[in-house]
Amino acid sequence: MPGTYSQILLHAVFSTKERRPWIEPDVPDRLYPYIGGIVRTEKGSLYSVGGTADHIHLYFRWRTDRAVADLMRAVKAGSSKWVHENCPKLGAFAWQEGYGVFSVVSLCGLDYWANTPLRTEAGRSSSSVEWAWTFPSTVRMTLPMFSRRCRMAWAASASVMGRVL
C-alpha cells in the first residue's frame, strides 16, 4: 500500500511561567485561533483548544515525520511572540519550560470534548476561572457519527479524563 496513514491524536498541556495568571479573559478569543494557525502551518490538525488564566490544553492530530517537540516549540515561541506584539500590558509574559503530552485513544474522544460544558476551575484559588474547548465547525459536523458509538467506550474514561484536565 503506497503512502503512510496515521491517526496520532494527542492532548498537550503547558503553562505560563511560574503559573502566573497572564491569560486574561480577553486574550483567548484571539490567541487560540492564532495557535490553531501555527498548528496548521506545521501541518497538524487542531481539534480543540482551551485553558485557564495560567495554562492551555491542545487536542490535535500530529504527523509521523516530525517530532511533537518541534510542534510544541513552534506553538510556544509563536504564541509568546504574538502575546508580546498584541498585548502590550503583558510585557513579562512567557511560557513555562516544558509541556505534557498524552496520547488519546481515538477520534471518539471528540465526543467527550465537544459535549463537555464550560467548567470552573475549583480548589486552586479564591478566584475561579472558566474555560471551554473550542471546536471548528467542520469538527462539530462530524461528531454525531461518533457520539452513539463512542459514548459507552468513553463513559469510563470520561471521568478519568475530567480529572486530568
Keywords:
165 residues; 6 strands; alpha+beta; single chain
Quick summary:
The chain is an alpha+beta fold and 165 residues long. 41% of the residues lie in helices and 19% in strands.
Strand residue content = 15-25%
Determine the fraction of residues in helical runs and give it as a percent range. Answer: 40-55%
Number of strands: 6
- State Rg: 16 Å
Q: Which stretches are low in confidence, meaning pLDDT under 50 for 5 or more residues running?
A: 116-165
Give the SSE map.
Blueprint lengths: L7 E8 L12 H14 L3 E7 L3 E8 L5 H19 L13 E4 L5 H6 L4 E2 L9 E2 L5 H28 L1
Helix pairs in contact: 1-2
Descriptive report:
The structure is a single chain. The protein has 165 residues and is of the alpha+beta class. 41% of the residues lie in helices and 19% in strands. It contains 4 helices and 6 strands. It has a 4-stranded antiparallel β-sheet, covered by helices on one side. Strands 5-6 form a two-stranded antiparallel ribbon. β2 (45-51) and β3 form a beta hairpin.
